[in-house]
């Protein structure tokens, strides 16, 4: 008999039960891992936690023609002014 999509496996059920017995959640465990000494281990734990804290960003594609002329002109002026303030050569 096929497993119903979304149903819990025996391993997942036992992990969730063990967490419940100890009064913690898997996210609590990840938070503890985020304080580990090993930088690679910390990075991976924080990367996993990010999925639960922030939506994933998607790449967007646009063409220069999609930018309104006023916005484009304002950005060019902002960049030129910044270079002038920094004393950099323009052009």
List the helices and strands and how they pair.
Layout: H1 10-22, H2 26-33, H3 39-53, H4 69-85
Helix pairs in contact: 2-3
Describe the structure.
The chain has 91 residues and is mostly helical. The chain has a domain at 10-53. The chain contains 4 helices and no strands. It has helices at residues 10-22, 26-33, 39-53, 69-85. The longest helix has 17 residues, at 69-85. The model has no long low-confidence stretch (mean pLDDT 84).
Main sheet: strands, sense, barrel: none
What is the radius of gyration computed over CA atoms, rounded to a whole number of angstroms? 25 Å
How would you classify the helix and strand content by structural class?
Answer: mainly alpha
For the secondary structure, the number of strands is 0
Helix content: 55-70%
Shape call: elongated
Which segments are poorly predicted (pLDDT under 50) over 5 or more consecutive residues? none
Mean residue pLDDT:
84
Number of separate helices: 4
Distance between the termini: 70 Å
The helix-strand sequence is HHHH
Percent strand: under 5%
């Amino acid at each position: 008999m096929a497993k119903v999509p979304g149903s819990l496996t025996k391993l997942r059920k036992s992990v969730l039960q063990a967490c419940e017995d100890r009064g913690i959640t898997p996210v609590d465990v990840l938070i503890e891992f985020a304080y580990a000494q090993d930088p690679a281990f910390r990075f991976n734990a924080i990367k996993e936690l990010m999925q639960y804290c922030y939506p994933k960003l998607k790449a967007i594609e646009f063409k220069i023609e999609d930018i309104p002329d006023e916005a484009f002109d304002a950005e060019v002026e902002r960049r030129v002014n910044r270079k002038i303030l920094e004393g950099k050569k323009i052009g």
